[in-house]
Amino acid sequence: MKHSVLSGMRPTGRLHLGNLYGALLNWIKLQEEDYERFYFVADWHALTTGFADSKKMHQNSIEMAADWLAFGLEPEKSTIFVQSLVKEHAELFLLLAMITPIGWLERVPSYKDQMAQLGKSKTSNYGFLGYPVLMSADIIMYKAAFVPVGMDQVAHLEFTRELVRHFNTTVGKSVFIEPKPLLTEVPKILGLDGRKMSKSYNNAIYLSDTEQDTESKIKVMFSDPRRKRKTDPGVAEECGVFMLHKIFTDENKCSEIKESCSNASIGCVECKKILAKNINNTLRPAREKRAYLLQKTEYVENILIEGSKKASIVAKNTLNEVKDAIFSNSRF
Question: Which range of residues forms the domain containing residue 75?
């Protein structure tokens, strides 16, 4: 029996380079390995902090799925679905909520951080407090043995593992397995201002940006502050522009740029032009495919609908097993 892997993204807006290199390319890589793969549009999760933007959710979901398909996620190899189209997720969330201590939720690492970052107006709701339970339901619904995450997300997965142990002990039966992190090496993706690339920081290069947009953004990207003049030497390893060069520029050219930066034989303007060209060359085929897919939204919608039907079959079987364990096979 194949092990399952599961991951999802919230449709809160356009995807950027951080999403691509932090998750999507790894999903695509996993298609060549011996797993049952489930990747989903986490639209209910998006509502926990973005209910006011719910009218945009459908279009955001279509565009996000188009990005997935454009960069190489294949419905023939992976089950691609929408969380809200598989109603069993909500029912398992409800059942798990009955045994989840409030204190566990309040100590989740990101809970207070997100409250501080987003403000009480977006986080003072039960859905936000309970999202780790919904996340757990998403994962264990498909008996996922592995969840592809970066090292910084391992603590979040530990909540699910703890809840699985608690559920199995409570019902006296090993219904679920404890999912393990499938650690992935995530390259450091800095935004235009030198902070982590994020939609909320308004510092992102989006997969859907035009080539002109990309060039304009790279022009103003934060670089080594030592280089106030072209003749000032720099330290490439401490420059956000060079960190992107290490992803988009070949190794020999990177070494050349690093040396030229340290002896001030290349200026930041020229360095940024090279980077913008390389980013655009790398993304061009997927950007063209994305534009084509968005002209055929019915095709993208059908992939999500068919994937959701496929996911529902697995989810129904799991939920029946859960109910039998809770109600000792005596449910109506």
Answer: 3-189+296-327
* Position 198 in a domain: no
Q: Which two tokens stand for residue 276?
A: 């913008």
Whether residue 182 sits in one domain with residue 112: yes
Token duo for residue 124: 């003072």
The DSSP result for 247-268, as a single string, is HHS-HHHHHHHHHHHHTT-S-H
pLDDT digits (tens, 9 = 90+) for 46-75: 998 888 889 999 999 999 999 999 999 999
CB neighbours (10 Å) of residue 308?
Answer: 21
Q: Averaged over 232-239, what is the pLDDT? A: 89
- The residues, any chain, with a CB within 8 Å of residue 128's CB and separated by 6 or more, are 48, 49, 114, 122
Does residue 200 belong to any structural domain of this protein?
Answer: no
CATH classification at residue 228? 1.10.240.10
Instruction: Provide the pLDDT for residue 329.
Output: 66
Residue at 94 is within a domain: yes
Give the chain's domain count. 2
Strand, helix or coil for residue 132:
helix
**What 3-state DSSP class applies to 81?**
strand
Convert the pLDDT of each residue in 8-50 to its tens digit. Answer: 999 999 999 999 999 999 999 999 999 999 999 999 999 988 8
